[in-house]
């Protein structure tokens, strides 16, 4: 085990994840400039051939596409931060404590708890569900636009049924791996449990960010997981900033809002990054979740494909 190589990969992953917060503005500018260059040679001909409808529709479509990347990022920030997060902060951290202070401690067990329950039932549950749907659409749009700019059209080499099975398998693995990361935090030896949970959360956040690019490149789920396990120093460093930020909050709702605000930048970071090939022994943290997921698939829709061999580089 080469400590120097591991340290470099950790630092490079950490740096690449932070770099995405600046890269998004450069990427949006490059997209606009490239579209303008494509339109400029044919502008005269388009005016002569289509003086009315053609010219107007082309300009309108171009303008919509140019602003799509930043608009999606702003939508994520406004909805998750300006609507969801602020409502949580106002009601649970300002309104309820002030209510308890004004009415006295005896009223807390009755009115305050009822209001909190009613608030979470009527407001938090619907808006949480809506945020999951909208975030899924917005994240995919951001990832597709960034991928098309840097690599061109996505590569789909399988049938849609296999693609759907791959997506379902990926969702199950991510959910089980999240439960696994939470479970190991309850190991009686606090330091060991915290480190293992922290490392696995870093790898999970890296999988979230890179999966959009790897999926568009045609990588299967087992190949994606093997690549993370084989080059774990880089991906632990890449997922470290997001893990530190989300674990700072006691409320999982607040952590989820912060994650949704920052994750678009992580998608850009993953799309632009070139992972360091460490060559260290793989960390088989995904092995338990893969085993359980294979059992679930075997008992429901049949046996999934066997895991691919560990990949040594992105192609």
From TrEMBL:
Positions of the UniProt region annotated as Disordered: 37-64
Keywords, ordered alphabetically: Membrane, Transmembrane, Transmembrane helix
Gene Ontology biological-process annotations: macroautophagy
InterPro entries: CysZ/EI24 (IPR059112)
Endoplasmic reticulum is among the record's keywords: no
TM segment ranges: 77-100, 112-139, 160-183, 189-210, 248-269, 281-301
Signal peptide: none
Subcellular compartments: Membrane
Membrane topology of the entry: Multi-pass membrane protein
Annotated Gene Ontology cellular component terms: endoplasmic reticulum; membrane
Ranges of biased composition (kind: Basic and acidic residues): 50-64
Pfam families linked: EI24
Superkingdom of the source species: Eukaryota
Family: Belongs to the EI24 family.
PANTHER family: ETOPOSIDE-INDUCED PROTEIN 2.4 HOMOLOG, P53 INDUCED PROTEIN
Protein name, entry field: Etoposide-induced protein 2.4
Organism: Exocentrus adspersus
